[in-house]
Amino acid sequence: MDKKEKFTTAIKANQGTIYKIASIYTDTIDDRKDLLQEIIYNLWKSFDSFNQKSSFNTWMYRVAMNVAIYNLKTAKRNITTVPIADQYLDVNEDENNHFEEKVTLLKQHLDNLNLLDKGIVMLYLENKSYQEIAEITGLSESNVGTKMARIKEKLKKQINNKTDYGTR
What is the 3-state secondary structure (H, E, C) of 56-122? Predict the structure, then answer.
């Protein structure tokens, strides 16, 4: 299998994860498409540097989250982009409608979190262990545990305050 086939297979196997990362870090469909394209481009660009010290999924998460956070931190640049072939972004829209509703609700509560905390929550929701989250984010495992406890407490307060407000 040549490099292009390996890459295509890996992207197709992880397209849902890439889509989730793009959904967490964007607000509009157009921004999401742009971020998906940027993530896939960066994954392709750095595909040769994947040294298999970690799983492909862990490496992909790290690259995708770094791209997403970088894009949010930098000002929008007016550059000409070339669309990536649809075969890399073959996400079934019907399957994603239900996902979109859940993401919208989750984003309402995540909007008050900083960029790193959003990423940690997303990884946690993907059932990643604290060790895997630490590998992806570059934090220590104990720091991930502490951050998760604080994030959970903050989200509980947000949800309780919204529930209390909604019943008044």
Answer: HHHHHHHHHHHHHHHHHHCCCCCCCCCCCCHHHHCCCHHHHHHHHHHHHHHHHHHCCCCHHHHHHHH
